[in-house]
Amino acid sequence: MSESNSKSLLAVVAKIEKNEVVAVLLSFMLVFVLMTSYSILKPLRDALGGDWGNVGLATTWTVNFGLSLLAVAAYGAALTFFSFRRMVPSVYVFFALTFFALFLVRTNVSDPTLVNKGFYVWVSVFSLFNLSVFWSFMTDVFNKRQARRVFGVIAAGTTVGALVGPIITASLVDRLGANGLLLMSAGLLIVPVFVIPILRHLKTSQLHNEETTVDLSAQQALGTNPFSGFSVLFSDRYLLWICAFILFYVTINTFVYFELQDLTRAYSLEFRAKVWSWIEIATNVLTLLTATLLTSRIVSKFGMQTALAMVPGLVALGIIALVASPVLLVLAIFQIGRRVGNYAITRPSREMLFTVLDREKRFKAKPVIDVVVYRGGDVLTAWVFTLLADKLGLGLTGIAVVIGGIAIVWMLVAIRLGRIYNERADIS
After folding, report:
1. What is residue 139's predicted lDDT score, i.e. its pLDDT?
2. pTM (predicted TM-score)
């Protein structure tokens, strides 16, 4: 297809104006590259976790939680001293250099255990900035009117990258090994250095958005005091119900993740990387189909209560299959189905919950919920799982029963939360 035909197709299908096409295509390519870079590393990170046992993995998650808080606060503080124009490419160059350094260290140490734990934590920290910095940059390039039309097309690059990354890992891990894939991912993070200046030029030359600037107040506030939203959080019953909902969501995520680590521990790193890669591939394909065909219909036809309670209910039912056949394949299928439901139904519904709050409450409470409650919940439930599995000796069947009980309580919380949302939104 020629360039003129592709531009015409974009204009018809996505309502993108002629002067926006180049900027949209470059933005799509940029987020595709960024997501591919992360998605190559994610299966490798998850595969490495199988080497350390539950205590080692829970300890690593604890370190990750603390470092994530420091990293988010440091980024917010840096934004008060340095221009956003410099910060965007600097973030990606910084992570590229750190991944390249990890590559050099991994290739020159006899026992890479400590380095691998550092890699595991650092990829998790990278995930906090990879897309958030990109989307902040996008709000600096496109104005609000353009964003409503073009952001959906640009976001499709995220989906494609999330598919291509694990395919690369699954296909090349035997040939290149973890070190080769790490070097490939680091190389991709250099691409923004060349694309970002072009997009900045297009912002004024073709998009005519000289006055458009990104609102960095939320990130800067986190740098000043990442805990400032707690007073707002504890003063609003609705926000506390959201926290409870997220904690149950996180608990099941963590339990299933740790159980998968237990079941794959005996296999090689390369095999584990393939398992996690195919889980990612299947999850992303099915999420794309579900989000496109079902999500909006579920929320609009059945309401928020049903949308929030659907995945907890399905998890409770899925436990029956897991108890009947507690093997890796069934757990992997359970994990895929659960994540598809979370990404396509639970997460969009969860974001809708904040639309009935005023701007001040959203501004102050949401970062605390996303960073402290979510990641702190990860750490807490990681240690709870370790207690149940290592100290009390619960196997997959026992853990599955616990997950089923949690899912039932989660469903009840979801129904209650949906009812409060309806009251605040004046939905009968």
Report:
1. 82
2. 0.85
Cα dihedral sign, 282-340-72-133:
positive
Ordered structural domains, the chain, with CATH: 1-226 (1.20.1250.20), 227-428 (1.20.1250.20)
Cβ-Cβ contacts under 8 Å for 106 (sequence gap 6 or more): 112, 115, 116, 119, 178, 179, 182
Could you tell me which residues come within 8 angstroms of residue 273 by beta carbon, excluding any fewer than 6 positions away?
Answer: 43, 44, 47, 169, 170, 173, 178
Tens digits of residue pLDDT in 147-202: 777 887 888 888 899 999 999 999 999 999 999 999 999 999 999 999 999 998 89
Q: Which among 59, 39, 41, 54 has a CA at the least distance from the CA of 263? A: 54
Query: pLDDT tens across 331-364, in order?
Result: 999 999 999 888 888 887 887 888 788 776 776 7
Q: Which of 172-186, 281-295, 414-428 has the highest mean pLDDT?
A: 172-186
DSSP string, 265-278: TTS-HHHHHHHHHH
* Structure-block tokens of residue 176: 């290149």
Residues 199, 205, 207, 210, CA torsion sign: positive
Q: What is the largest CA-CA distance in the chain?
A: 65
The residue among 181, 200, 244 whose CA lies nearest residue 86 is: 200
